[in-house]
## 1
Amino acid sequence: MFIVARRLGQRILIGDDIEVVVTELSRSTVKLGITAPRPFFIMRGELKDSVEQANREALAAPLAAPVLDAEAPIEAESTQLVSVRAFLKPSANTLTQPGTTPETAGPSPSQG
């Protein structure tokens, strides 16, 4: 672990592409500004930990038959673990099948 003291406005460079700047100091917190290229995913550690914990709990939970609304169609879905990135930024692909729009999405005639 790299530990360094910085003052307001001072920077830390990581490689050629990532820059961390001290933007604000108070008695109990330090605010950092982080500049990084688009492919880098930056998030708070406690948020990542909570998603991982939810995934562990989902794995440990016993499978039980869901209580269904009498009018709701029965769908065969499996519970999936999600990555932190997918959890935070669901893409349109997860909502519809390829080649459909949200208005036309639904079961195909062959799915019945």
Note: Residues 43-58+79-93 form one domain.
## 2
Amino acid sequence: MIDDTAQNSAMENSLLKMRLPKEMTIIVIDITNKCDLGCSNCTRLLENQDKLWEMTPDNFRLAVQSLKNFPGTVGIIGGNPAMHRNFVEICNIFAEEFPDKSRRGLWTNNIFKHEDIATRTFGGFNLNAHNSQRGKQSLRGLKSLKIGNYYDGNSVHAPLLTAVKDLFPEDEMWGRISKCDINQEWSASIVQNNGVLRGYFCEVAASFDLARGTDHGKPIVSDWWKGNIDFFKDQITHFCPGCGVPAKLKGTMDELETDTYTSSNSDLAEKSARLRSRNVVRLEANSLEFDEHKVTLYSHEARSYNKQRGSASKFSKFKNQVRRVIRNLAN
């Protein structure tokens, strides 16, 4: 073990290397946790949340207004944002409050009936059908615009619930946190937590709060995202040690609808297994498979995983299809 001074030093060195929201090129607004898929190790922990929610149009307007001076892209994400009952109104508010179309983005796996309004509203897309035939058909028009990213095949997701603090000593834990994919390459976020807007230095940190019914978010005021490291330090020290992204463990194919976890996150995994019959796998320190790939491998990057694991069994596919039907009926 290392002493408290060494632990604090490791943490402080890590904080100095982390990217703040004001240094990011994208900040996302999560407008709903509704989704028509149930991907393995979802970065939004959708299957671990207790109830469905949608951001109110008034709150969405306030969220966008708080980012009016942000120089990068503001993205709408979910869940699947196209499942929001007020999606058209949300798009109209976005256009009113954030005039530069080139910096309005949409992240979705299926646009449903909203292709026209999406084409008019957004100047960039991150489209990932996760090999869903319905999703690929829905996204054909947006794909043809060739503005942003498009992935039609399966993705591989590294586990979020394998807490890095369960797997490494303190100094190595903080060293890994300082190089986290999410912090270095993804986004800060705004969510609606029990009806109230909250800001996070990390989009995955927001997911943990929503999954646990807790609130460590920052109040959404003008330019909240300009906060320095001391402003976000409490979020970083609370969420990062319990997250699995820095652990760099082997990922799981999206269609298997399986979450991998360690003891610190057993509450979330066991809840989804109990309430939603979710496939969950508990890892122990002597059964870890490390892999230095990014937290998400998209389409062509995931093909080697397809080859390694082979096709999912017919029974597994059938079981997952039944779960999707039940989830869609519940929504």
Note: The first strand starts at residue 26 and ends at 30.
## 3
Amino acid sequence: MQVPDGKVWELETASRRGSGLPALCPVDRMPRRLRNQICIAVIAVGALNFLSYTVTYAVLGGDAPNGHRELLLRPDGSQQVVYFVRGHFLRSLSGREAQVSRGVWIYSYLHSLSVLLTSAAMIISMLVLARPHILATMREGPISGRTFVTAFGLLVVLVTAAALVVFVRDLLAPPAMAQG
């Protein structure tokens, strides 16, 4: 549906009031107050997740994605996987590794993945909250507010998905053989 630039705001407002016009965006199909409460809750959960990640990183001295796993061959011929977290510049300029249990390493890796997801959810939530203002201020110009919001949201989703693929690939990769 082609809408003149000056009429976008009126159409969206009319669609929320139940005038029978279709909502221009899926987030407009729910009451504004509920939508805003959900977005604020997502932002709060994401901030708490980031805070807990930061505390865990400080306590462990790093995280699993910056660390690694090694496959050690014992003198008796058996194999053992050892897990290390590594922190960049936390303890020294070069960073430092700390050996941790398998469970702690997996937790650290999964928590790192959750930070990626909650960060993206926070950005999308902030975009949804700012959307009316973006639409109102970007009515004229080389790019419309709707196009900007859509493109920015898509960019966040694509970058997050790509990072998630890389992290999950590294998580599922077999441990490297220990050197030396």
Note: The two ends are 66 Å apart (CA to CA).
